[in-house]
Amino acid sequence: MGTLSQTTETTNRRLIIPAFRGLYAAAHEGVETILRVVAGAALVTHGLGKIGDPFGAAGMVESLGFYPGVFWSPLLSFTEFFAGILIAVGFLTRPASFAALFVLLVTVWFHWITKGQGYGGAEKSILWAAIFLFFVIRGGNRHSVDARIGREF
After folding, report:
1. Coil, strand or helix at 32
2. Closest by alpha carbon to 25, among 35, 15, 34?
3. Dihedral (CA of 36, 134, 7, 24) sign
4. Where exactly are the transmembrane stretches of this chain (predicted)?
5. Model-level pTM?
6. pLDDT tens, 106-153?
7. Residue 11 within a domain
8. Fewest CB atoms less than 10 Å from the CB: which of 17, 32, 88, 130?
């Protein structure tokens, strides 16, 4: 959502190298779009293996306390795959990102607590959760289907 106030905020900052001001102002929304597309595509790729066997993770999700696994396993598969597509194209960006955030927070719990791996085991999930939290709050920006249809969640 490249608003005038964001552009003004970028131009009013006191930069160590002021010559970069124009580059930062011009690139910030494009870089945000790249992050959204890459994060969504990575989530699709991660869910692709699960979508072929949506019940394959039933035992794993039950080991986390999500019963019945035959309900939660396909939900996990579909969330990763379809939320990734929605995030990548920027359609229903906030609810799709919220679903992805929830999945990632569960994986943080799984690695940190259940498997006892601590921060080292959960680090990647924490980073991905932070990325999806960003899109829960920001939405898809003007380079998204949400913006093209003129409606956001």
Report:
1. helix
2. 15
3. negative
4. 70-89, 96-113, 125-141
5. 0.86
6. 999 999 998 899 999 999 999 999 999 999 999 999 999 999 999 888
7. no
8. 17
Angle ∠(6,128,36) on CA atoms, nearest 5: 45
Q: What is the DSSP string of 33-100?
A: HHHHHHHHHHHHHHHHHHHTSTTTTHHHHHHTT-S-HHHHHHHHHHIIIIIHHHHHHTSSHHHHHHHH
Q: Is the residue at 7 inside a domain?
A: no
Note down the domain range covering 89.
Answer: 32-149
User: In the chain, how many domains are there?
Assistant: 1
Query: Helix, strand, coil: what percent of the chain each, to 5?
Result: 75, 0, 25
Q: How far is Cα 80 from Cα 99, in angstroms, rounded to an integer?
A: 8
**Could you tell me if residue 24 is inside a domain?**
no
